[in-house]
Write a structure and sequence with these properties.
Elements: H1 3-16, H2 19-25, H3 30-44, E1 49-51, E2 56-58, H4 60-88, E3 91-96, H5 101-113, E4 118-123, H6 125-133, E5 139-144, E6 151-159, E7 187-189, H7 196-209, E8 216-218, H8 222-230, E9 235-238, H9 240-246, E10 249-252, E11 258-266, H10 269-278, H11 280-287
Parallel strand pairs: 3-4, 3-5, 7-8, 7-9
Antiparallel strand pairs: 1-2, 5-11, 6-9, 6-10, 6-11
Helix pairs in contact: 1-2, 1-3, 1-4, 2-3, 5-11
Protein name: LysR family transcriptional regulator
InterPro entries: LysR_HTH_N (IPR000847), WH-like_DNA-bd_sf (IPR036388), WH_DNA-bd_sf (IPR036390)
Pfam family, one: HTH_1
Length: 304
């Protein structure tokens, strides 16, 4: 028996002295109100109403328990009201500042379908981690090494010209003896990849193949990095989806497999679990994973 529903019928009928009018006020059929009151009487083993052909009146037992029934109904209604308010309360989520408006809008729409009113806050990796630590957001998509990532995004190099090869080797950017005075091509790292498990591996590769320190540069923004690449023969470290958005030709790096890893950080474990469970594909689209939510067995390996 649904005790709350039965009490709602009981309170409505007692208030109007009629099963017909009380049921109408409770927005249920009269037969349903009768069954619910009868079930409540059977549950307590006592009659709640004295019934006549014209009206119903409370029995002494009914008068005794009516106040408790009213409190239960009021509490249930308050809980339903609080639940609706909770669904509308913004869930502030820090996200990478790389998602396009279209994909971010789809993420918000997907959240609403799961009763999650997302308030997105684009930020750089270090800022997202700090926002989660200080509880200025309820959760944040934070950059993590490959083996810790729930979402994984392959990285490569993209440029204006089609290299006509399946991969790009960083060592080919090394200046030869014949053109040492020529401007050396650079690799631009956007702020989203200014994290140790990506940036430091790229710098180690730079040193290993003999590039100059100035040939791997961390840009102040993705826009600044892309502008340098669009206007030159330089290359941008980015995901395939970013290259496509910018109209650049993307290829994986021949000497190294780089992957962005992402996970959820939150003050409450249940908030982190909720984001992981409800929105894996929508978040994957925003981040640029292959196949929306890339399973671990299809992600390029390479470690952190």
């Amino acid at each position: 028996m649904d005790v709350v529903a039965a009490c709602k019928a009981f309170v409505a009928v007692s208030g109007y002295g009629s099963f017909t009018v009380g049921a109408a006020a409770a927005r249920i059929p009269q037969s349903v109100a009768s069954r619910r009151v009868a079930a409540l009487e059977e549950h307590f083993g006592a009659r709640l109403f004295d019934r006549s052909s014209r009206s119903v009146t409370l029995t002494p037992f009914g008068r005794e328990i009516l106040p408790s029934a009213r409190r239960l109904v009021e509490l249930a209604e308050a809980m339903e009201h609080d639940a609706e308010r909770a669904k509308l309360r913004p869930f502030r989520l820090a996200v990478p500042a790389i998602g396009t408006p279209r994909l971010l809008a789809r993420l918000v729409a997907d959240g609403r379908r799961h009763d999650l009113n997302l308030d997105l806050h684009p930020a750089a990796p270090s800022e997202r981690m700090e926002l989660a630590r200080t509880l200025e957001v309820r959760a944040a998509l934070v950059a993590v090494p490959l083996n810790e990532g729930v979402w994984r995004v392959p990285l490569g190099l993209a440029g204006n010209a089609d290299p006509r090869t399946s991969t790009i080797y960083v060592e080919t950017l090394r200046a030869g003896r014949a053109n040492r005075d020529a401007r050396r091509r650079c690799i631009w790292i956007q702020p989203e990849d200014d994290v140790p498990h990506v940036r430091d591996r790229m710098i180690r590769l730079r040193d290993a193949v003999g590039l100059q320190p100035a040939q791997v540069v961390v840009a102040t923004s993705l826009v600044a990095a892309a502008a340098e690449v669009i206007d030159s023969t330089d290359l941008l470290l980015c995901s395939p989806s970013q290259a496509d958005e910018l109209g650049l030709h993307w290829r994986p790096i021949g000497e190294l497999e780089l992957v962005r890893g992402y996970d959820v950080a939150a003050g409450l474990r249940e908030d982190a679990q909720r984001i992981r469970a409800l929105l894996p594909a929508a978040i994957g689209r925003c981040l640029g994973t292959l196949g929306n939510d890339m399973p671990s067995d299809t992600v390029p390996s390479g470690g952190a």
